């Protein structure tokens, strides 16, 4: 009888000991999850969108992405599969739509884009229609753009390819730096020229 009781007590003690150990392991695991690892983001969001305004309260850009990571210590934000709308702050209208595989905005307002980068002008009859490349940077304060990658750009009456780019989105200017090849569409250029010229009757 004493042996059976001893065995029962040992089994109960073993069960309680196992339960206690599992609870301690769970608490330690939960505590480890709460401790931020070095280099990890302070905030992670899925399917997030945000609107950013300048100091005068005018819309600067709208961003949405499959995933957004915010690093407070370095004031850096990462986007997975981003879509960004860049605004003309004077007109307060959307001017450019930007897509890429990955994007990063740094604390000095630099937007770095990587993978299948496409910048498309949403304004009708714009001089510069779109830019396609693999890597490109945009200064969100000045809208200056730069790239060292192979670039394709298209505008009213032309398509240009080359390596390396500098320009400005507000001015709708993009200059390729080397290995430049340009394809002109004369009919579109002539049509645009005629639209820009004043009518002879109107001038009299």
How is this structure best described in words?
By secondary structure, this protein is of the alpha+beta class. It is built from 3 helices and 11 strands. The protein has a 6-stranded antiparallel β-barrel. The longest helix has 33 residues, at 2-34. The chain is globular and about 100 Å long. The protein starts with a helix and ends with a helix. Residues 192-204 have low confidence and may be disordered. Belongs to the LptC family. One of its GO terms (cellular component) is outer membrane-bounded periplasmic space. Its main location: membrane. Keywords: Cell inner membrane, Cell membrane, Membrane, Transmembrane, Transmembrane helix. One of its GO terms (biological process) is Gram-negative-bacterium-type cell outer membrane assembly.
- Count of DSSP E strands? 11
Q: SS-based structural class? A: alpha+beta
Strand content: over 45%
Q: Please bin the fraction of helical residues.
A: 10-25%
Question: What is the helix/strand order?
Answer: HEEEEEEEEEEEHH
**Overall spatial form:** globular
End-to-end distance:
124 Å
Poorly predicted spans: 192-204
> What Rg do the Cα atoms give?
29 Å
Largest sheet: 6 strands, antiparallel, barrel
Number of helices: 3
